[in-house]
Specification:
Blueprint (H helix, E strand, L loop, with lengths): L7 E5 L23 H13 L4 E5 L9 H10 L3 E6 L6 H10 L3 E5 L5 H8 L4 H15 L3 E6 L8 H10 L4 E5 L6 H4 L1 H4 L3 H14 L6 E3 L25 E4 L4 E3 L9 E2 H4 L1 H7 L1 H7 L13 H4 L4 H8 L11 E2 L2 E2 L2
Parallel strand pairs: 1-2, 1-8, 2-3, 3-4, 4-5, 5-6, 6-7
Antiparallel strand pairs: 8-9, 9-10, 11-12
Helix pairs in contact: 2-3, 3-5
């Protein structure tokens, strides 16, 4: 299946951030930021191309000075708008502005069930309590909230507590994100990332827990297909470049935020042409198995796993996902 435009655009309006997280893919990146007029032109193009969802990331979106103007215009054009935030600046006033601008939902990053774990991972004392308060402010303002939790070595044993704390504050969905190995995540990979068999054990446990969890659990990892979990999805393998695209602050587009390869600039090349004609996107949509993926009976379901992680670790889209727990096409011991 190939869409005429991405279903979702993840948009980094600015890389400015008040945190210095240990896993961040973008910390240290700099890009020129477009003027508000050009940003509004991009909103109109996304709407004209019938993109359904726009998610603002970063950086920290609540630092961007024109966030609410851009979001209000986007919702007026029929786009379903969301964002991800660290929660530090999401006080009651900001929650009210979020509601007024028409945000469909807001995701707050919470990466531990205790301040000790979360604050160390986020390199910001006090950030755990601020994130929990942000959820309460969203609830009180009538805005649907989600939680994004990046699973890593220090929080994997307490992920259920993260879910429970989120549910207590009215959260509808908790995203249990895999570790991407990009940016600072690559620098700190040895200390933070799980081993392949540990990822398998986590997913097996989380899939069982999902049946009784107090909030909906969501996973964004194509490697989970090895456990029979990908059937019925819109696409197999990674969704980046197939269902979604990433926008940089200067209008450049990349397959996703974790793949720093420009495939064109939306202002000069146009979204439709980029989506249809990019050689990089075509290569991602038509991967050829390499290494242990060749002959693997699960390849048709996972398509090699996470493309971003494979590229970050091996330098190739088509190499096996380093989180894969299979060995030469068979289960690892």
């Amino acid at each position: 299946m190939e869409l005429s435009a991405p279903l979702t655009v993840n948009w980094t309006l600015s890389y400015a951030c008040n945190f210095n997280c240990r896993h961040c893919y973008s910390r240290g990146q700099t890009r020129d930021e477009l003027g508000l007029g050009d940003v509004m032109k991009i909103v109109d193009e996304l709407a004209d191309c019938r993109v359904a969802f726009v998610n603002f990331g970063g950086g920290e979106p609540l630092i961007y000075p024109h966030l609410f103007e851009v979001a209000t215009h986007a919702t007026s054009r029929g786009l379903k708008v969301s964002m991800n935030t660290n929660g530090w600046k999401l006080d009651a006033e900001a929650a009210g502005k979020i509601a007024k601008a028409g945000f469909r939902s807001v995701g707050v990053s919470i990466d531990g069930a205790t301040a000790e774990v979360h604050d160390h991972f986020r390199s910001r004392p006090g950030s755990f309590e601020m994130a929990l308060k942000a959820l309460e402010n969203l609830r009180d303002a009538g805005v649907d909230s989600t939680v994004s939790a990046v699973i890593f070595r220090d929080n994997v044993a307490q992920y259920k507590q993260i879910v429970e704390q989120a549910a207590e504050r009215g959260v509808s969905t908790v995203y249990l994100h895999n570790f991407k190995c990009s940016g600072r995540g690559m620098e700190n990979r040895e200390a933070l990332d799980l081993k392949p068999d540990e990822w398998k054990a986590f997913y097996e446990d989380a899939l069982k827990y999902r049946e009784d969890a107090p909030a909906k659990l969501a996973f964004d990892d194509p490697i989970i297909a090895l456990l029979g979990e990908a059937e019925g999805g819109a696409v197999k393998g990674s969704t980046c470049g197939k269902l979604s695209l990433h926008l940089e602050p200067d209008g450049d587009t990349t397959p996703c935020g974790f793949i720093p390869l420009s495939v064109g600039n939306i202002l000069t090349d146009g979204l439709k042409a980029i989506w249809k004609d990019s050689d990089v996107l075509q290569k991602m949509r038509n991967k050829e198995p390499k290494g242990k993926c060749v002959g693997c009976d699960a390849y048709s379901e996972c398509l090699g796993g996470c493309t971003a992680r494979a590229l970050a670790v091996t330098g190739s889209f088509e190499e096996p996902d380093p989180h894969c727990w299979k060995s030469d096409g068979t289960e690892s011991a």
